[in-house]
From TrEMBL:
This is ROK family transcriptional regulator. Belongs to the ROK (NagC/XylR) family. It holds the Pfam family ROK. The lineage of its organism: Bacteria, Bacillati, Actinomycetota, Actinomycetes, Kitasatosporales. SUPFAM superfamilies: Actin-like ATPase domain (SSF53067), Winged helix' DNA-binding domain (SSF46785).
């Protein structure tokens, strides 16, 4: 197949990833192709097992039934793996985003060294692959996330303050676990979560081209979308905003400096201030359980918890305002565990955000909650594999019976 035809297929596939399901005329108009060309490209993608026709839908009372097109849901799988301070999440999904399997492994504090966490990750990945589907599927790749500074081009973890990792060749370790059977992508958790947020917003008809996603899970990182694409900066490691100094006289951060954004508004800092030491384990918050406790107590109007969340929300608003002044996004999204605490964080955050605007008024970035919450990063990591196909970073599979990718049973 010629390079031009291949590029046209990728363009059409990209449009379906973002906006599907669509009729053939809608798809052709969306990518600017004539009807005959659209049909030829669609048929080629169907032969590859990447696109499928859905059941016809009736348009109005007297309209003719219209057959919709979307990503094929039967032949392939993509996987996402999230490595965190206290857990390893893994999910396997169809191309359309239907969940085939999700697993969560709790990680004890003695396992946070790279070798220990990678062992947990390898086990979780094998479990996901072994149990992902009743029939044979072909695995197109695995996205792996870590909260920190990542060189996505090499798959190297440059620095993760919350884990104490430096210069860890993570992609090589995961590729070894897979036996080289499928491509592996490594990136920061916020970047992957931003991709998942973008697709959800596009399919809901919401703003998604200019967006900042604040993770609020193990630290505070930002996934930045500009013109619909991830902005990585000059070295490919943009977004580690949790270690911006927002309060020079503030508490000491895990990175060793004082007054970082993360030390004021990160979830470990919030739980440490709001909950008694008996709720924490080994000096480090068990985040899912701690968030559960925060929600329970905030709902019962626990004054200590509500006051802590209000202060944290204020710092989130100030930090978000600093980001808005530099990046000027249309929307800033609070994701990760922040999403569960939105009833208590969002309003103080919005007040502080509005107060810090250089040009106040209605035309300021929106500050909103993500609907993705806990699993957005794993879902986005899997979605990144699909995006790598549409962007030409890996070859399109020849078809369900081809040899590209690893078989998932």
């Amino acid at each position: 197949m010629s390079g031009g035809a291949d590029a046209t297929q990728r363009t059409m596939l990209r449009h379906l990833v973002d906006y599907g399901p669509l009729s053939r005329p809608e798809l052709g108009d969306g990518v600017g192709l004539a009807r005959a060309t659209t049909s030829a490209v669609v048929n080629a993608l169907i032969r590859r097992g990447l696109v499928a026709e859905l059941a016809a839908v009736q348009e109005g009372r007297r309209g003719r039934p219209t057959t919709l097109l979307d990503l094929d849901d039967e032949h392939y799988a993509v996987a996402g793996l999230e490595i965190g301070v206290d857990r390893v999440l893994s999910g396997v999904y169809t191309l359309r985003g239907r969940e085939l399997l999700r697993t969560e492994r709790v990680v004890e504090s003695e396992s946070v060294n790279p070798r220990g966490l990678l062992r947990h990750a390898q086990i979780a990945l094998r479990e996901a692959l072994d149990q992902s589907a009743s029939g044979a599927r072909r695995l197109l790749g695995v996205g792996v996330s870590v909260p920190g500074l990542i060189d996505a081009s090499t798959g190297t973890v440059k620095y993760v303050p919350s884990l104490g990792w430096r210069d860890v060749a993570l992609r090589a370790g995961v590729e070894e676990a897979l036996g080289g059977r499928a491509p592996v992508l490594v990136d920061a958790d916020a970047n992957f979560a931003a991709l998942a947020e973008r697709r959800a917003r596009l399919r809901a008809g919401q703003e998604a081209s200019s967006l900042v996603y604040l993770t609020g899970t193990y630290g505070i990182s930002a996934g930045v979308l500009a013109d619909g694409r991830l902005w990585r900066g000059g070295r490919g490691m943009a977004g580690e905003v949790g270690h911006l100094i927002v309060d020079p006289h503030g508490p000491v951060c895990v990175c060793g400096r004082r007054g970082c954004f993360e030390a004021r508004a990160g979830l470990p800092a919030i739980t440490a201030e709001a909950l008694e030491p008996s709720t924490r384990r080994g000096g480090r918050a068990d985040l899912p359980a701690a968030i559960d406790e925060l929600v329970i107590r905030a709902r019962s109007a626990d004054q200590r918890v509500v006051a802590t969340l209000t202060r944290a929300g204020t710092w989130i608003g100030r930090g978000a305002a600093a980001l808005a002044a530099v990046i000027d996004p249309r929307v800033i999204v609070l994701g990760g565990h922040y999403a569960r605490l939105v009833p208590w964080l969002l309003e103080p955050a919005r007040r502080a955000f509005a107060e810090a605007q250089l040009v106040p008024g209605d035309d300021v970035p929106a500050l909103e909650a993500s609907a993705g919450a806990d699993w957005a990063t794993a879902e986005g990591a899997a979605l990144a594999v699909l995006k790598s196909l549409t962007e030409g970073e890996q070859a399109l599979p020849k078809g369900p019976t081809g040899q590209t990718g690893a078989e998932v049973r």
